[in-house]
Fold this protein.
Amino acid sequence: MTSHESSKFIGRSMARREDRYLLRGQGQYVDDIAEPAGTLHLAFVMSPHAHARIVSIDTSEALRVPGVVAVLTGEDFASLVAPIRADIEMPTYKHTDRDVLAREKVRFVGEQVAVVLAENKYAAQDAIELVYVDYDILPAVVALEDARRPDAPLVHDHIDNNIIFQGEFSTPDFAEKHAGSKFVIREKIRHGRLAGVPMEPRGCLAVPDRGDSLVFYTATQIPHIVRTGLATHLGLEESCIRVVVPEVGGGFGTKAQLYPEELIAAALCMKHRRPIKWVQDRREELLTNIHARDHLYDLEIGFDANGIVTSLKLEFATNAGAYSSYPFGATLETTGGARMIIGPYKIQNYAYKNYCLTTHTGPAGVYRGVAQPSCFLAIEALMDRIGRKLGIDPLEVRLRNVVTPSDMPWTNVLGVRYDTGDYPACLKRAREVSGYDNFRRAQRADRLETGKYRGIGISNMTEITGTGAPGWRVRGLRSVSGVDSATLRIDPTGKVTVYVSHASAGQGHLTTFAQIAADYLGARIEDVRVIEGDTGSTPFGTGTFASRSAVTGGGAVICAAQKVGDKIRRIAADMLQADAQDISLCEGKAVVAHDPGRFASFQDVAEIAYSIGNGVLPEGEEFGLEASEFYDPPVVTVANAVHIVEVAVDARDGRVSIENYCIVHDCGRVINPMIVDGQIHGGVAQGIGEVLMEEMVYDENGQLVNASLLDYLLPTAMDVPNLQIHHMESPTIDTTGGFKGVGEGGVIGAVPAVANAIADALSGIGANVNSVPLRPAHLLSLIRNAVREEGRAAIEESAY
Amino acid sequence: MDSTEVMDVELTVNGKRYKRRVEPRLLLADYLRHEIGLKGTHIGCAHGVCGACTVQINGESARSCLHFAVDVQGCEIRTVEDMATPEALHPIQQAFHECHALQCGFCTPGILMTAEEFLRTNPDPSEEEIRTALSNNLCRCTGYVNIVKAISVAATRLQQHKN
Amino acid sequence: MELKREHTIQADQSSVWLALNDDEVLKACIPGCESIERTGENVLRATVRIKVGPIGARFSGVVTLSDIDAPNGYRLTFEGQGGAAGFAKGEARVDLRAEDAEVTVLMYETRAQVGGKLAQIGSRLIESVAVKISGEFFESFSKLVGKECVSDVSEPRAAS
């Protein structure tokens, strides 16, 4: 198959193969893997202080717990594991070295200082309570706003002013152009800290294998990066390490890091040649898995009387926590927010300064959206403010500022290339399907109706997807490769196996990659099996995050399928005495196009290719029926969406309900609409959580005060409404297959839309909404500060 | 009591009787997963909030991370493994499959156990009732939209099957 | 966490002051107190069992008295280690005021911070637990000191 029009499987909502065993409870997650005899369990002692010197560690009582084999501290690992350091090449970037177990100092609450090895996990948990650590407590800097103060304690001695990285950019003559803007709105937008909270906590099982090798089971999104990371930090050869990814219970980026516990488990396994298992509990998950967001946007937007943006100025700070994580370092959000904020708009005069700061809090990393939800929160809030200031409808403001199809491909002032997409059509379609105009017509000036403030919010977002090597280099990431690959192999019985370098955590790759392979190869889909997440059999790749698997994995599968398909045609042509270009592949058969009675099955061809039976390979052809293809998308491809959300804010208790939610989404060519919608649903739910309830809270001493699901609130079935999703397809001209990514689009669109809806709801009383999360107490105080006595009476009246 | 003291704990799980020598503090979830090898029940939080560990005790959904195995001696425990037959999925599971009501699958067994009890006691629920019934099961992947739909579809089919 | 409270005790100020500095009285009145030991002139070592929601722990702590202004008040700082449960530290200002000859008002103001597991999963309970513990303390304390006073109404107190 070579054209998009003749897809049999791509574009179909095929039910997933993964479901068969997941529904029966037969999915094998890392904690489910049968433990080999002699497995030792790990449990960690965590620091209760945000910043302290370790004076001494007394492990004697812990060692006496029955079943405990050893209790180790940082010194024990000094010769086993190199400190974790992300490989970042960026001017001004200051690296951090993180010991896998803290040695002299702890730098955040939850940092591990000792590890217990025991015969069972209950004994390990008993023992960690009996490890006594003597700390010399030091003052801590916790809040992003305090990191750069001259008197702030330094998190790392070599990182002045706690600035890991700073950058700046300016279009020519910016100051002049900005000064010349007719109107300027200034605003600070604060985005609270979040956690990803997949339902499955992290864990790993390291098992010694033949000779000196290691099989490392780990719940990860990045198997090859883990393999390389283990090799370089433990001084091993990659060839003796096999990373196997079991079923993963959600990642969202939290499992796209190499963590200290993984290095410790692998190191102990190699040293003692015993299986080592570790699974974290939820409190550890919330304390030690990467956090995200914790951003401050200090903005000035200049515009003219028609609402056209004439200049944008940004000072952007991110709180990266105590250490850079591996492999992405600390700055993806810092550079991402500053670079993506222009979004779908034609903003020609732009200047930013960005700062990546370190504080005595949990290390930050890549969580779904990676700065895009917060930078769109910011720019979309400004678009609404422009509308309010000028009395122009905010959707109209956006229409006046977006890049149009005739501008495409469009390169913005930062050099980010927007390949395809129809932003005006997307806005108009969303306006239509959501009933936006009717809502506005009926909307009261004070927004108050039956005791609730009602508002409608828009987000108009673009999402960078399918980032390959060039995209990662530009962001300073030297060792995040960017390529992915697929090996497509037909076995002697004619069945197809596709090994892909990705690692699904719920995205349904075993189904979607099979759809692609079956279409491009002309195979029957039931004859195609996809295998992922095993560095012993899957070829090298970058992994699954940043909305890239459809693009990079899809591209690689297509290339491999085309190569194998070509070979099938050549061998079949020889068998059938026809021309290769007259052979078409479908339903697992190579058929002579004008004479379908003449065909060879894939099995017939495979037998020739493997020298089974009496067939002979055509002249010049080699044995085998497989191809391995690497794919590096030449540029990033840009997906887009518009979300329109109606909310009602209860004037008496500040609670928000979502009354209507419409989405128009364009992720290019859709492989499996049902799975795409599922990704959007999940992303929107996370976005709703991000705006209404989620926040990791550190007190002024750096204590995390909500490390349980009782206090870190996640959206439930009562918080996420039904979503109306409409699709547009602007296939990308730049990538093989025409796919764009979609994994993060839901959350990127949801955060600004829900926040804007609440802002709109409260705009009638003049309340300024400029931060998330927007919990009931906060909204109630905004309402109370804005509304005087008469207003309160009006609320009560309208409620009845 | 010495924490390493052990005792015999007998449970009936999915219709079969098991007797294992375990510590009194062994969680029901761990008894199911490690003593019997039924790993479909997952531990998501160990403090009773997420619902991934939901099983049925004497027909009622319950958090297996909040019970000690010893506390439920003599009870009938049912887990997700009891829902399907070797030949076919349970109608609720089938509806989940058709409606794409699971992604990573980690929360799914707990949700299935909750849904099965709910539809048994409330065979013709409104959407709001379904959402309320699900409100104690967290899912981070699906946004619940398809789960609600699947339970609605399953309700209709179970009703039809009865009639 | 900040707590500011007042309690009225049916006893004269000097009796209340003496009782406040009496280790045996404190041990009897502090809920969950297992031991109190004076390790220095104004330094006490105590172990107390506390439960905050699901977390129960034995805290070993040091209480240091300062700014002692007998019989009107003192300042105390405390620091308690609860092992794996975490730690608590803070300070309090305790002041006495004679309402009349037989009635004393005890005012205290406490600022405390908790850390470790206690903070991570018990934060929202800390204040209510602190209120409960101090409530129980003052109830016991009032009964103990007040009782002495009540029984002294009929008999003049021996000078101590």
